[in-house]
Design brief:
The chain has about 140 residues and is α+β, with helices and mostly antiparallel strands. The chain has helices at about 10-20, 55-75, 90-95, 95-110, 130, and strands at about 25, 30-35, 45-50, 80-85. The protein is about 35% helix and about 15% strand.
């Protein structure tokens, strides 16, 4: 299942507003541009693949992968952003896992993830009470 149409950017003026009025982060295969939208009900995502990266089949394959990556991460995103993902030529040769890893890294650097809904709980440091629970003969000397 693809990203629902109500969560996508579709108009050219929306893409231009994100590129002109927002910030961008660059990786090896992708460029991630975001614009804050405090009035938005939910985040919106758009994807750009230019003719420079290949023919229509190639561009559509890259776009499908990017839509799936964003769809899988959508619950973690903050709701006040428009997001444009631009594919660079190395995205054609990259596999899905490396594209996903790069997109998540760029999104994290951009501060797009809502930390309250993070799938991983924060790591806790061992406390002093943990060593008190050990039997006396197993304590290091």
């Amino acid at each position: 299942m693809a990203l629902p149409s109500d969560q996508r950017l579709t108009r050219t003026c929306d893409f231009a507003a994100v590129r002109e009025g927002g910030k961008s982060w660059t990786g090896r295969c992708l460029i991630l541009a975001i614009r804050s939208r405090p009035d938005a009900i939910q985040a919106h995502a758009g994807f750009t693949t230019t003719k420079r990266i290949g023919n229509a089949v190639t561009r559509n394959r890259v776009r499908r992968r990017l839509r799936m990556i964003v769809r899988d991460n959508f619950p973690r995103l903050t709701v006040t952003h428009d997001i444009v993902t631009i594919a660079k030529y190395p995205a054609v040769k990259a596999d899905y896992a490396s594209l996903k890893q790069e997109w998540e890294k760029l999104a994290s650097r951009a501060g797009l993830f809502d930390h309250r809904s993070s799938p991983l709980p924060p790591a806790s440091a061992p406390s002093l009470s943990d060593s008190a629970a050990l039997p006396s003969d197993s304590r290091p000397a």
